[in-house]
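Summary for the steering committee. The consortium agreed at its last meeting that each partner would contribute one worked example illustrating the joint modelling workflow. Our contribution is presented below. We chose a case with several input lines so that the handling of multiple components could be demonstrated. No manual editing was applied between input and output; the record is shown as generated.
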Amino acid sequence: MGGFARGSLGVLLPPVLAVVATMILFAGFLAAQGVDPLTAYRLIWLGAFGTWFSWQDSLVRAAPLLLTGLCVALPAQMGLMIIGGEGAFVLGALAAVAAGLAAGNLGLPDILVQVIMAAAGICAGGVVIALCGLLRFKRGVNETISSLLFAYIAIAVMNQIIAGPMRDPGSLNRPATRTLPDNLMLGTIPGTTIHVGLIFGIIACLAAYICVYFTKFGFAARIVGGNARAGRVVGLPVERMILAFCFAAGGAAGLGGMVEVAAVQGAVSSDISTGAGYTGILVAFLARMNPLAIIPVAVLLGGLDAAGGLLQQRLNLPDATMLVLRGVLFVMLLSADALQGRLTRYLAPRRLPVTV
Amino acid sequence: MVKITPTRRSVLLGGAAAAGTALIGGRGAEAASMTVGFIYVGSRDDFGYNQSHAEGAAAVRKMPGLTVVEQERVPETVACANAMAGMVHLDGATLLFPTSYGYFNPYMLKAAKQNPSVNYMHCGGLWAKGDPLNAHSYFGYIDEAVYVSGIVAGHMTKSKKLGFVAAKPIPQVLRNINAFLLGAQSVDPSITMQVIFTGDWFMPVREAEVTNSLADQGADVITCHVDSPKVVIQTAEKRGLYTCGYHTDQAPLAPKGYLTGAEWNWTYLYPKWITALQAGGSMPNYIRGGFKESFIKSSPYGAMVPAAARTQADAARAGFTAGNFAIFKGPLKDNKGNTVIAAGTVLDEHDPVLESMSYLVAGVSGSAS
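What follows is the complete predicted structure of the assembly.
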């Protein structure tokens, strides 16, 4: 078995404890608001997973998170903390629309144009995150900061382009690019309202999981992540590996942007930046940087997102309620991380292999 | 509560069935227990755009037999589609008010096609021939009320310089900027105005900086077109400036400096529309209006507004209400010296030319692009 199962108790226990602690704290918060926590939790369940409609809602919201979660989790294998997935997401969407509008007129089969769009999105997102990796080993620039700053730049560039060169002259009061023709839009999974982006996300997570835990390349990456100097000493091409992982990470987020525009929005406007890239950070942390664990975590967070509406509609709670829940969850998770070392030592006296 | 697990087919069947009963004559019974959903892009207590709609929703909530469900801070993404679908499938709403411009295409249009028995009322005025008939879109000529505010500002300014905090250089916003200065110039043609664009609809920090910078440049009456005027009005009040509000009444935020403001009148319109729907009437798909149709109103004048200003402002409002007064008429030059409306041309509020306004009138410092 792979790293996920190895020492799985030690790996799984902290996040589970964090979730339980969050539920207790959040119940206190709800009670302080004069809301019965049990009613609220029942509504969250109903809104997230209680009906087939809720499931579809949750899964649609989970789709971009799978890919933006990977944008954080992949570089983390190499010990890099990239938090600028939003920028890659936005640029991926923009590049995909540009490619779709340009290639759409060439008379190519739709599927080929869609592949070109996906490739454009992956490249645009990949390049921007790879740049962060490059700055890291060439100039020693902290990749956390640079990726975050690149996200701001990317959003500004996107706003400039949709208000200038790529603006649809018909989009008077809401600057946007031209809309992709219907034949280039990605479809839904038959019988559902879930677009195929969910499948892309799951495939990407599975591929990343296999790459990280079952290939020599992934093994080498984890060695570098554990100790970059040791990696160099044993002759690993650390720089090239960083570039590859960063490109793959940005490519995942860029593909997320492509899906968002090709399956949902149809055109890029400033609404393309919805925070999916930032939520991806939370997803990756909650999944403890394990690409496979990103799948259930993204579905969970997508569900919480979907449930927020019902809390507002039925209990008149403000939208910020779900932000509070997310915030508490994140803090609990970081606290649980601190607990991690002690817990594993307590639970398993034998030394665990350093896998995560 | 309605418990259904809607696959696409069951939704279609359910929708068709519901439409059927409505036609057969179940409408009266259905109307008695109607659920109405409101969706806002920002916080419903933002002292601005979203609050104006939420106040409309609150007025609807007071009507007998109506259930109101609300959801705030819903971005113009698939989240909006899901919020609308949730209200229809989980809460049984049959009338929805998705109140933000970007909800319309593609989300609301798609939803309207999928649920023919649900009425969708969108704020933005975007409906065009060929769009579903259960989709509606409305918007108001609020530049009329902004013009009236401009008249009051023109009377109050001593520095002869006004300040405008604007979100984006798009036609709707440019129209308000121009209307405000034209109103002021109808009092004194030498009045000028500085406009600064913040770049987005909700940027509290930037809005505060911009307001301070306008104050430093000598503007003594400030107004704005952003989603939440709260920060602008409060900052201007702190600097001892006069302010004109937007979207809702911001007088409580600035008791010393609040002159008047351009407000939406949804608290009047929403109950009126719903009453008409309940009575079995149909709703036009494209609805527009100004003072005449009670889409908009002005905030009550502050105590400091003198009688001369009130008289002139009231006269302009009376002209709009009577439908014999136009803001944009030739000869009109933009701030680069080009003639944008030829002498003798009068553009009334309904004129589609105004919907693509791309210039700032002479006297405005700032750039529209």
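Residues 168 and 178 of chain A are 5 Å apart (CA to CA). Residues 64-286 of chain A form one domain.
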